[in-house]
Amino acid sequence: MKQTEKNTYTEEEIEELKKWFESQQLPEELALDKATYIPNLRDTLDRLLEQANLCCGNPKMQGCIILLERIREKLVS
């Protein structure tokens, strides 16, 4: 997924992320890094995706999408 020139993500890119997570067999919990532990991954993803849909056009509110991408990268590796 690439950010647009305005440093925001499109609704289509967020939907693509959502579909990717829905197609995966997810662990119940995830240690993203040494400082980030997610005890309920599915619930966290649902909330992050909801926030991403609300904030996709705001370049100052892209943290939830960046976190979603980091989670996906961790699950793929």
SSE blueprint and pairings:
Layout: H1 11-22, E1 30-33, E2 36-38, H2 41-55, H3 63-76
Antiparallel strand pairs: 1-2
Give me a quick take on this structure.
The protein is mainly alpha-helical.
List keywords for this structure.
77 residues, mainly alpha, 53% helix, globular
Structural notes for this entry:
With 77 residues, the chain is mainly alpha-helical. Helix content is 53%, strand content 9%. The protein contains three helices and two strands, in the order αββαα. A two-stranded antiparallel ribbon has the order 1-2. A hairpin with a 2-residue loop joins β1 and β2. The chain is globular. The model has no long low-confidence stretch (mean pLDDT 89).
Residues in helices, as a percent range = 40-55%
Question: Rough shape?
Answer: globular
Number of helices: 3
Average of pLDDT:
89
Order of helices and strands: HEEHH
Number of strands: 2
* Main sheet: strands, sense, barrel: 2 strands, antiparallel
Percentage of residues in DSSP E strands: 5-15%
Sheet with the most strands: spatial strand order: 1-2
Low-confidence stretches: none
Radius of gyration (CA) equals 12 Å
Structural class: mainly alpha
